[in-house]
Write a structure and sequence with these properties.
Helix content: 40-55%
Number of helices: 4
Distance between the termini: 39 Å
Strand order of the largest sheet: 3-2-1-4-5
Pfam families: RVT_3 (PF13456)
Number of domains: 1
Shape: globular
Domain RNase H type-1: 1-133
CATH architecture: 2-Layer Sandwich
Mean pLDDT: 96
GO molecular function: RNA-DNA hybrid ribonuclease activity
Keywords: Hydrolase
Oligomer: single chain
Strand content: 25-35%
CATH topology: Nucleotidyltransferase, domain 5
Structural class: alpha/beta
InterPro entries: RNaseH-like_sf (IPR012337), RNaseH_domain (IPR002156), RNaseH_sf (IPR036397)
Radius of gyration: 14 Å
Low-confidence stretches: none
Largest sheet: 5 strands, mixed
Order of helices and strands: EEEHEHHEH
CATH superfamily: Ribonuclease H-like superfamily/Ribonuclease H
Length: 135
């Protein structure tokens, strides 16, 4: 079983977004900081979640089909949209995220408060600050 935590950070004035991905398996952590193409926080949350699943799929390869993933997000819209497989203004992003989850045997999505998602949150903010410094 793998635990996947994702979070996005967006700077509205610049339109820059970045994400943090934290993968936990057998007490080992993989931490990733990514720059995102999204320019709003909601779209960034979907994008980083998709990237997290894509990275995890590459990491474990064929084992995906027998792997359960506990997915943690502090984004209510991502959590709700996955439960319904629908989001009025974000359907393409929902479909892309569901496709990234498809290789796994089972994905259990859990909304968590931001304070319980500090690992991914910190990575996202670090990535955003790095992107802002380069701009």
């Amino acid at each position: 079983m793998f635990s996947l935590y994702t979070d996005a950070a967006t700077q509205p004035q610049s339109g820059l977004s970045a994400g943090g991905i934290l993968i936990v398996h057998d007490h080992h952590q993989t931490q990733l900081k990514v720059e995102l193409t999204a320019t709003t926080n909601h779209t960034a949350e979907f994008e980083v979640a998709r990237l997290g699943f894509e990275h995890l799929a590459r990491l474990i390869g064929d084992a995906c089909e027998t792997t359960t993933v506990l997915f943690y997000t502090d984004s209510q819209i991502v959590s709700d949209s996955l439960a319904k497989k629908y989001a009025k203004h974000y359907q393409k992003l929902v479909d892309d995220l569901l496709a990234a989850q498809a290789p796994f045997q089972l994905v259990l999505t859990q909304w968590v408060p931001e304070k319980q998602n500090q690992g991914a949150h910190t990575l996202a903010n670090q990535a955003l600050h790095s992107a802002e410094e380069r701009k």
